[in-house]
Amino acid sequence: MGIVSRDAIQHFQALIDEVDEPLQSTFKNMHQGYPTETLVRFLKGRDWNVAKAHKMLVDCLNWRIQNEIDNILAKPIIPTDLYRAVRDSQLIGLSGYSKEGLPVFAVGVGLSTFDKASVHYYVQSHIQINEYRDGVVLPLATKKYGRYIGTCVKVLDMTGLKLSALSQIKLLTIISTIDDLNYPEKTDTYYIANAPYIFSACWKVVKPLLQERTRRKVQVLQGGGRDELLKIMDYASLPHFCRREGSGSSRHSGNGTTDDCFSLDHAFHQQLYNHIKQKALTLESVAPVKQGSFHVDMPESDPEGSEIAKTIESELHKLEDQNGLSNSIDALKINGD
């Protein structure tokens, strides 16, 4: 770490030391005993500009306080049938760990429908997984591997991605903005698996809009990417949709729910939900747990995020128009025959 970096961290630390309660308490809860590493994440998120990183972190701390994020793991999505519906339509899970000890999160981008609950439930669920990752999964990995582990890798399955994904852009932009502003630099690498043409077309136009540090994190795999992923993780940690040779792996290409890390019956989701229920019990003596989603302030996307979302939407519309024209031509050919 260079002199400039050390100076930036020291300056940033001095500024954060001056913030009052309750910001100090929520910062302590957030950094989990690693304040310097947390400051570095926010500095990276603002290209080492101390003033911008300071504003970003203070805004994050205020967001956490205003939305009671420190207690979100005590707010279960109930009843269980509703939570199962959320899990069946917002596909994410922990499949294992890389050889370096980084948690491997699998995300079913193409087959997530986000159509079984309101936006607030999906946002609540996403933040709960973030908080469980930061408060439980990463500290356990740090203890197990004997060194600080503060990031994860994500494997994004594009199987089933269709033009109808256009309807999900608003929700995905909200979730992405929450991550960018409040959980910066938490993902080491994004691996894209089973990418269809629609992804490739969007990626070509979106890639130039991304910052260099973000572009470097994205690796598009050949097909399911099994052989490439086995270089960084053992077979047991491969997401189920990457285990088959070649491309086109489906959601259920594992051996049942024990392998399908998206399933509520998978060990990760059972542990997460049990953790949330136990947390909720500690608060029930103060106030009974109410049914209904836990509303979180929806952040406005930054200009870069808005431009990317608009670009994706525009590209999908173009593909939709081309697809419609292609279908019309096919219909004319059939009628002509």
Key attributes of the depicted protein:
Phosphatidylinositol Transfer Protein Sec14p; 2 domains; 5-stranded mixed sheet; 12 helices; 51% helix; 8% strand; globular; disordered C terminus
What does this structure look like?
The protein has 337 residues and is α/β, with parallel strands linked by helices. It folds into two domains: 3-66, Helicase, Ruva Protein, domain 3 (Orthogonal Bundle), CATH 1.10.8; 77-254, CRAL-TRIO lipid binding domain (Phosphatidylinositol Transfer Protein Sec14p), CATH 3.40.525. The chain is 51% helix and 8% strand. It is built from twelve helices and five strands. It has a five-stranded mixed beta sheet. Strand 1 and strand 2 form a beta hairpin. Helix 1 (3-17) runs parallel beside helix 4 (50-66) and helix 8 packs antiparallel against helix 12. The chain starts with a helix and ends with a helix. The relative contact order is 0.13. The model is unreliable at 247-257 and 325-337 (pLDDT under 50). It comes from Tetracentron sinense (Spur-leaf). Residues 79-239 form the CRAL-TRIO domain. This is CRAL-TRIO domain-containing protein. InterPro entries: CRAL-TRIO_dom, CRAL-TRIO_dom_sf, CRAL/TRIO_N_dom, CRAL/TRIO_N_dom_sf.
